[in-house]
Amino acid sequence: MSLKNTQTIKVDELRTLLENKTPIRVLDIRPQEEREEWKIVESEFVDVYHQLKSGTKNLFSDHKFSPDIPVVTVCGAGKTSMIAMKQLREKGVEAYSLEGGMREWTKAWNTAQTKDNNGTTIIQIRRTGKGCLSYILENNGEVIIIDPSLTSEVYSTIATKNNWDIKYIIDTHIHADHFSRGRQLADKENAMLFLPNQNIVNYAFNAINQNTTFEFGKATLKAIHTPGHTHESYCYLLDNQALFSGDTLFTSGVGRPDLKATTEVARKKSSLLYQSLQKLLALDNTLAIYPGHISNPVAFDDQLISGTLGDIKNKVQILQLSEKEFIDNLLQNIPETPPNYEEIVKLNIKGTAKEADLIELEAGANRCAIS
Ligand SMILES: [Fe+2]
User: Fold this and answer.
1) Any bridge partners for residue 244, and if so which?
2) Are 235 and 170 within 8 A, CB to CB?
3) What's the CA-to-centroid distance between 341 and ligand 1, angstroms?
4) Measured between alpha carbons, how far is 235 from 242 in angstroms, rounded to an integer?
5) DSSP state of 218
6) Quick one: pLDDT at residue 360?
7) CA of 323 to the centre of ligand 1 (A)
8) Ligand 1 centroid from CA 71, angstroms
9) What integer pLDDT is reported at residue 201 of this predicted model?
10) Residue 169: in which H helix or E strand, if any?
11) What pLDDT is recorded for position 51?
12) How many other CB atoms are there within 10 angstroms of residue 357's CB atom?
């Protein structure tokens, strides 16, 4: 690594090393319970946190390290990992501390990609530190981006590198777990911003309705209204080959219907979600389903998070229930309310936010799904 003069490594540097499969050891020194909430998949747990905090020396004396493989220490916010890094350096190990720790890691991402039978390239951009999935779809040099959740540079750089033209930017719904970067990206790329038709956001956008279709290159993306998770939720069908299912259908569960809702409203939204899912389940079983989120950190493994509609139908038992059973089951299994969702929705309504303020707001596990 070209980092030898520094004691720390930035999120983007570590992300790039993992993406390039550069040999590296990532030591997670946080307490076990924090690791259970969210982690870097490629990291290993080292049970030293409380001893580091109490000033114990030589904590790594029993650990073996290869001289050729640098080590990165990770904690919650990048402070205790500095102490671990120094102890490792005293032992002669080439060690770095991850700047900002797991709090900052919420910005980390990786990709996986495929090409469909119509020649459309599908790049899944996985915000591994958070679980948000966004998509770049390209056909004949023209691009649609779905649910951008990372800074504009991430998407712009990929498009520029391939000489692609970003034509449309669309969201599946008004998000409650991350700030949508759609508006900023549309401004930067001079692209058209489309959002589901609603009167919630306070800025100008082109409205998506039940009959909206997007043409890009030789490909067509068709909007399907799927209320339930939120009233304005849409899914997008790509040439009868793939479905971008937002927070309506996941590979192992369905969207939660409850945020900002009383029990009565949550019941009604659950019924809407059931009807929307019936609409999706009637589509071709061979469709590849690409969801908007995943509830676990995503490995740097180049493997798409996806499944065929037929497989998901068989695997996700809640999809096999009657409407009444579905609603009862959903309402009994509502996960913990995600932190800061009201603040995040406010920012999405406003359409502007400072990246520095978003680190704290967006930190933490994704809790959009019920499985
Ligand atoms: Fe959502």
Assistant:
1) 236, 290
2) no
3) 10
4) 10
5) T
6) 82
7) 22
8) 36
9) 97
10) strand 165-170
11) 94
12) 12
Q: Which residues contact 354 (CB under 8 A, 6 or more apart)?
A: none
Q: What domains lie within the chain, and their CATH numbers?
A: 8-104 (3.40.250.10), 108-370 (3.60.15.10)
Say how many Å lie between the CA of residue 235 and the centre of ligand 1.
12
Please give the distance, rounded to the nearest whole angstrom, from the Cα atom of residue 273 to the centre of ligand 1: 13
Distance 27 CA to ligand 1 centre (A): 32
Cβ(175)–Cβ(338) under 8 Å? no
Q: Tokens 């080292």 map to which residue? A: 46
Cβ proximity of 256 and 369 under 8 Å: yes
User: Model confidence over 103-127: pLDDT tens digits?
Assistant: 999 999 999 999 999 999 999 999 9
Helix or strand (DSSP H, E) at 122: strand 121-127
CA of 69 from ligand 1 middle (Å) equals 40
339 Cα to the center of ligand 1, angstroms: 13
- In whole angstroms, give the CA distance from residue 63 to residue 160: 44
Could you tell me the pTM of the whole model?
0.94
User: What pLDDT, on the 0 to 100 scale, is given for residue 190?
Assistant: 97
Report the separation in Å between the CA atom of 296 and the middle of ligand 1, taken as the mean of its atom positions.
Answer: 15
- Tell me which residues of the chain have a pLDDT lower than 70: 1-4, 364-371
Model pLDDT, residue 367 = 58
Q: Measure 300 CA to ligand 1 centroid, in angstroms.
A: 24
Q: What is the DSSP letter of 299?
A: P
What is the bridge-based pairing of β-strands 132-139 and 121-127?
A: antiparallel
Distance between CA 234 and CA 174 in Å, rounded?
10
Residue 4: what pLDDT? 64
- C-alpha 231 to ligand 1 mean position (Å): 11
pLDDT tens track for 261-303: 788 899 999 999 999 999 999 999 999 999 999 989 999 999 9
